[in-house]
Amino acid sequence: xADKPVIISDENSGxxxxxxxxxxxxxxxxxxxxxxxxxxxxxxxxxxxxxxxxCSSAITFIDGGQGILRHRGYPIEQLAKQSSxxxxxxxxxxxxxxxxxxxAEFERDITxxxxxxxxxxxxxxxFHYDAHPMAMMAGAVGxxxxxxHDRLDMNDPEHRMLAAKRMxxxxxxxxxACYRHHMGWPSAYPKNRLSYTERFLDMMFSVxxxxxxxxxxxxxxxxxxxxxxxxxxxxxxxxxxxxVGSTGANPYAAVSAGISALWGPAHGGANEAVLxxxxxxxxxSKVPQFIQRAKDRNDPFRLMGFGHRVYKNYDPRAxxxxxxxxxxxxxxxxxxxxxxxxxxLEQIALKDEYFxxxxxxxxxxxxxxxxxxxxGIPTSMFTVMFAIARTVGWVSHWLEHCENPTxxxxxxxxxxxxxxxxxxxxxxxx
Length: 430
Ligand code: SDX
What we know:
Bound molecules: s-citryldethia Coenzyme A
Low-confidence stretches: none
């Protein structure tokens, strides 16, 4: 049964207004407030969009209270266990799981676009060797528009899907090129006979002087991590991509903006910050003092990898990644004191009333760095790993926006500056 409209009454004007209720296939009901300015003369004020839906989307559903994450209706736990990153990419892009022939064609398409123009490697070589790889990624991905200006008619669905596939295919190649530039190694080229994650690992770690055999454990771990990072509805970086896309800018510019937004430590940069935090804590005996700092409003220290705008329960991805971290360490026959420290930190925090009361739980970034570290990824590259995976979500939302465009994103504001005043000539300013 359709929801009845919500009636608001304005005591100042004595007017009433019916606000229609908009309800999706799942999730909280929302109020359509489009008529508010015209009918009652009010805008709404919601810094950080904590209570505002910016669009409708059929790609991902999150229930923060229940700790639920589904992609096109499929629970993340099932996709993590039974699917692959490229199959999840197809699902996010197209809306359904592929038949065998559809998957084979999609995998061929992605594999066909893994190389980048040689001049892009020259572009990357222009960075200082110790440039942060996220700065290099944002620059390199934004520059792709310079290499593909001939196929950028955003009104052409074929051009749009080609741009989406090109970015999914090329992100690992560009990420590896950034890492190899930092290491002073020669360029590595994609080996198309390998799978998506095997190819990435080969481009990251193979060197001309030695044969390189991709570790199956590493390839599988990356596939799982990429599935867990592929999409997460209207998070800050995806909202950035949609906002840039709403201006009609090309998808490479939009994804480059998404990479920059992801870099922040409050967002995807948290995985790098978690490892730095664990190394700073150093020992279990120091955990209580850091928990104390995290609770102190005058201390900017935050427990990185904890808390979430939407999840007020356990982030389902954190559980999956924590289990995978144990498996990877066991498969590699190694242990990591930082894993023990992270688990101890989690146990103490989850029993602390501050974290319980504020419903702060580990999020996707809390354990992922343990796996990246075990697989030889340097901390500065952790958020690049996040960006490779999230490119699938970014381009899926960009395509969805193109097919179902909202007006150009243009939030309003509450003006708090000076009231009108007249200009005073310099000589009269005393
Ligand atoms: C990602 O949106 C997404 O979906 C993002 C993401 C994705 O897949 O795209 O899931 C990926 O970005 C995960 C989040 C990674 N960030 C971190 O781990 C950084 C640490 N976390 C915090 O910065 C924080 O929890 C945020 C930014 C994630 C969420 O912040 P909100 O929603 O703005 O919540 P808040 O800051 O208002 O916190 C509510 C309260 C505050 O205290 P009060 O002002 O009410 O007294 O909880 C406190 C905060 O101070 N708090 C924390 C805390 N996180 C929140 N206190 C200590 N440590 C923390 N980590």
